[in-house]
Amino acid sequence: MCRPLYSLRSLTCLSLTPSVVEESISLEAPVFVSYHPPIFQPLQSLMLSSPLQASLLRCAAEGISGGVNDWLAKGLGKGQVGALVGEKLDANGKGEGVEGRLIVLDEPLPVSQLVDRIKQHLGLSQVQVGYPSVTGDVRTVAVCARSGGSMLVGRDADVYLTGEMCHHEVLASVAAGKHVILCGHTNTERGFLSVLAERLRKEIQVDGLEVIVSQKDACPLVFA
């Protein structure tokens, strides 16, 4: 934004859409913290030869835990949370940078109850569920926010939880005896913004700083 920094407010959002920009102006919040980078398409690869891209790779190598997948896992119930794939875990069993989490619930439960927990955690009234031919109580859930088909398919879990999967990934998973729960791409991310905002409030020690979660940032698709 080209205006002077007239306010200590910042606005968090998933994507920097025109409506979010207008919201920021109306709230006098000149600083954005966007989950999706505004300059997105031109970045076709991550190369060490690029200083910016090398910095991103360095951050990933140092370990990024406590992110959106850990937040998703918290809504499923009590259980053991670990890495979905072979990554290094810290002393508390948290993954360090690789996408996905595998949750082993303390107690098995019906899929319908798990679905209710997910909807409550994400603030949704509806999700899509794929049922295998033989269904029953479930205990293990493989989680990957956003579009997690390539990460989830073939993993050893009773349930695959993600935002979206392609048609053939769903068919293959259901045929393999897995339950598939699809919540919508950004619906698996948006609730994490309040967590991020709270972290920013604690980390940025500036008197008068106000971190706001965008109310205009919304899923572009609705049930009709």
Written account of the structure:
The chain starts with 8 loop residues before the first strand and ends in an 11-residue tail after the last strand. Strands 3-4-6-7-8-5 form a six-stranded mixed β-sheet, sandwiched between helices. It has a three-stranded parallel β-sheet with strand order 2-1-9, with helices on one face. It is built from seven helices and nine strands. The chain has helices spanning 18-26, 51-62, 68-74, 111-122, 149-152, 167-175, 192-203; strands spanning 9-13, 31-34, 79-83, 101-109, 128-130, 138-147, 159-164, 179-182, 210-213.
Question: What is shown here, in short?
Answer:
Belongs to the GTP cyclohydrolase I type 2/NIF3 family. The protein is an alpha/beta fold. The chain has helices at residues 18-26, 51-62, 68-74, 111-122, 149-152, 167-175, 192-203; strands at 9-13, 31-34, 79-83, 101-109, 128-130, 138-147, 159-164, 179-182, 210-213.
Secondary structure layout plus pairing:
Layout: E1 9-13, H1 18-26, E2 31-34, H2 51-62, H3 68-74, E3 79-83, E4 101-109, H4 111-122, E5 128-130, E6 138-147, H5 149-152, E7 159-164, H6 167-175, E8 179-182, H7 192-203, E9 210-213
Parallel strand pairs: 1-2, 1-9, 6-7, 7-8
Antiparallel strand pairs: 3-4, 4-6, 5-8
